[in-house]
TrEMBL record:
This is PucR family transcriptional regulator. InterPro entries: CdaR-like_regulators (IPR051448), CdaR_GGDEF (IPR041522), PucR_C-HTH_dom (IPR025736), PucR_C-HTH_sf (IPR042070). Pfam families: GGDEF_2, HTH_30. It comes from the Bacteria. Belongs to the CdaR family. Residues 115-233 form the CdaR GGDEF-like domain. It comes from Streptomyces nojiriensis. Transmembrane segments: none annotated. Residues 283-339 form the PucR C-terminal helix-turn-helix domain.
Amino acid sequence: MTDRTAAADHLAGYADIVGAACATGRRLSRDELESRRTEGERAAEAGLPLRGLIRDHLAAAQTVRPAAPSSSDALLSVVEQAVDAFLEGYERAQQQAVRQEEAARREFIDDLLYGGSDLGRLAERAERFGLRLSQAHAVAVAAGPEPYGDGFRVARGIETAVLTRFPGRQILLTTKDGRLICVAPGDQPDVLAFFAKQAYAATDGGRVAIGRSHPGAGGVVHSYEEALSALDIASRMGLDGPVLHAVDLLVYPVLTRDRQAMEDLVESTLGPLRTARGGAQPLIDTLTAYFDSGCVATEAARRLSLSVRALTYRLERIHSLTAADPADPVNRYTLQTAVIGARLLGWPGDES
């Protein structure tokens, strides 16, 4: 069936309705208006172009003109009512289609990122949204000072920038739990790097984490979880830098894989610091600055806004309380591991 034939089907009865209303000068009845709305919905569902449909309505109205009263006001009024009702139905069907598409997309994204669906079926659905899950993919997650949704200006701006920069690429941009997300083929790190740059600028200094590339539908979940973990670790550890790569932070999950063992190490190694004046936290901060500066006392003192003498005193105090010397290579490894564990675990917490 051609578009012209389909359009004619949606005009069935239109001229009769317009002619009958014009003959008496009345407005269209509720049933007549609803019939035009129904035809508008059917036309939208059939995918007929709106411009042609309006043109056909106006052309059909011309056939009524000879039977209309001398004044064309009645005809114009009736045509306006009929076309307006038709457009209302057309728009209603389009809005419903958009809502259904959005719901399907959101369901797909939830299944993709949480792995809560049959992987074979998920791979089939993925092609509809521009992904080929037989390939390896990597995921970048951006977190800003406020939550973001799909319709937000920030999300739209980043999506436009990325898709304009990489036309034709198999890229999925979306949001989840207030974060911005980009899924790209694993062999195209330039896409995620560009996304990270755009997200950092658009979120006014937000932070972006990029998971490793993994194959298959389950690989997207794995990479997404790595990116989320990297953001969490960066927050706990106070790591600098706007862009984090999960591959650079693999040591932290390893250290906390056996949580009980890490808690025992932290407590046994750093527990005595609780007895210090001011509690353990200032001395843990001292160790953190000392290790982060490569065990260079002058640099650590600068970071803490202390004199070198004051820093040296704190290090000696730590040695005295823990029996572990931060300057000794053997003791240093134990202390540094314990300090990392303390930061990951939020130890010692509230000491008040």
